[in-house]
Amino acid sequence: MASVTSLSDSVQQQLTSALTAARPEAAGADPLLRRSDRADYQANGILALAKQAKANPRELAGEVVSRVTTGDLIKDIEVSGPGFLNITVGDRAIIENLAARYADDTGRLGVPHAEHPGTTVIDYAQPNVAKEMHVGHLRSAVIGDSVVQLLEFTGETVVRRHHIGDWGTQFGMLIQYLDEHPHELDHKAGPDLQASGEEAMSNLDRLYKAARKVFDTDEDFKTRARRRVVDLQAGDPHTLATWQKFVDESKIYFFSVFEKLDMEVRDPDIVGESGYNEMLAETCRLLEESGVAVRSEGALCVFFDDIKGPDGNPVPLIVQKSDGGFGYAATDLSAIRDRVFRLKADSLLYVVDARQSLHFRMVFETARRAGWLNEGVKAVQLAFGTVLGKDGKPFRTREGETVKLVDLLDEAIDRASAVVREKAQDLSEEEIAERGTQVGVGAVKYADLSTSANRDYKFDLDQMVSLNGDTSVYLQYAYARIRSILRKAGDVRPAARPELELTAAERALGLHVDAFAETVAEAAAEYAPHKLAAYLYQLASLYTSFYDKCPVLKAETPAQVENRLFLCDVTARTLHRGMALLGIRTPERL
Ligand code: ARG
């Protein structure tokens, strides 16, 4: 793999050695290099170093400057303000750096792997069996999928876990009803996944409502249903087989939604709550024997000094109820053991609604006390905020119900298709439909990914499919425009011309392309796709100003045409790669 040292890293190395030569005791200190408006980069780490060494910062900065060899890389370096360093890199270095990225035939644009990749188990996209998927499930799926792509790109081993809600007392009623009405889940749809998915969900929904009705009005049915809960927990084969029908039916629906979301979810990665049943009793035993959990009024509980309810009494984590039943917490604690000891994870990541933060705080703390989590194994909840409607309240339909994910995606696709149609010049109906889907789904994903996950965000379709502003459509159009220029160039091929002098717009674009590597590294390390989204938006904006100011096909000399086509192409590749890391398509034509 051809990994490329970024310009900022090369500059940073030179500064560090100059600094070390000037002050041996400061060896290895970080000069804190940043992109800057004044010059290409600014280093402001000298201030803190001077303070430490009780030296005059401007003087120290001057000593560093005198030890930097200017040349192709650092063209100019000067002291500014109280002791900052302003650094300008050479045009040649910019183009040569981009050319090396362009030559990387792995499609990674020279981005290196992380130095010490590990194993992350990521828990995301976890809907519930026999229930509709809602916008909260959308967030987990979209954010989780992007984090998977980012981590894998850095060389991390990623194990995906879709912790679906497939266990619990609610199944007693459903199983009993289905046994009494065995044809309720029959299908008419053929091999079309979307149609079967819809049918599956409407079957499940109808069955759920019908079962509920009998359960609430018929005491005998209620008794039969409760008995089925006991049978289920005891592992009665017939009861399990009926339960499995619900799981399978739900999976048809889940897969149809994930397909619509243009997202890969693999069956073996779906390990729901039921997948940990065999471990629950042992988890409780381990916790009780080690004294991490104690019996309180018959229930097995873990207490925390700092977690109290509104009445001031401690709120425990209940691992086992007094009737012997296990709940959500026992399952999550067992899943931790599985992920740490069997899957050998060193990072556990949970992409789950912020409203479950207290649960995870207690679960993680319990696991730490039990020794399952420690300095070598960390657990993090990537908590996401609520999806709000235009009115700023939790997103609901006009009737006050939670919004079905599928309806919302369909609406986004409709709006996006209208936008595509309006701008379409040479697209067929079929192409408009395909692009409409890619633009619509991309718009929803981008809106979700471009704000930091922990914030609530407003679901505003008009804004999401707008061509102006921080939207995926804007980025997709930027990409398609570049591809169209490259097509128009015909036989003239993009080629790096390091001997040329660059304009300010070309330099700004080039330096930003170079920063892709560090952006991806940061976004992956911090589980922060929004940083990549912000980077890509800026990339598209810088490209737009480059394109406004610098004629490409009509540039002055043939060499300049080639070099600008090259800048176009390396920008397109970066956009394409970056969008893929967000799970968003970049159509060739729009
Ligand atoms: N199924 C849950 C829900 O819909 C999310 C599961 C989160 N993951 C976990 N390990 N608890 O809210």
**Strands ordered across the widest β-sheet:** 1-2-4-3
| Text of the CATH class of the domain at 405-581 | Mainly Alpha
Note the main sheet: 4 strands, antiparallel
Q: Can you count the beta strands?
A: 13
Cα-to-Cα separation, first versus last residue: 33 Å
Overall form: globular
Low-confidence stretches: none
Beta-strand content estimate: 5-15%
Helix content bin: 40-55%
Mean pLDDT: 94
Name of the CATH architecture of the domain at 405-581: Orthogonal Bundle
Class by SSE composition? alpha/beta
CATH topology of the domain at 405-581: Isoleucyl-tRNA Synthetase, Domain 1
Kindly report the name of the CATH homologous superfamily of the domain at 405-581.
Isoleucyl-tRNA Synthetase, Domain 1
- Ligand kinds: arginine
Our Rg estimate from Cα atoms comes to 28 Å
Number of separate helices: 20
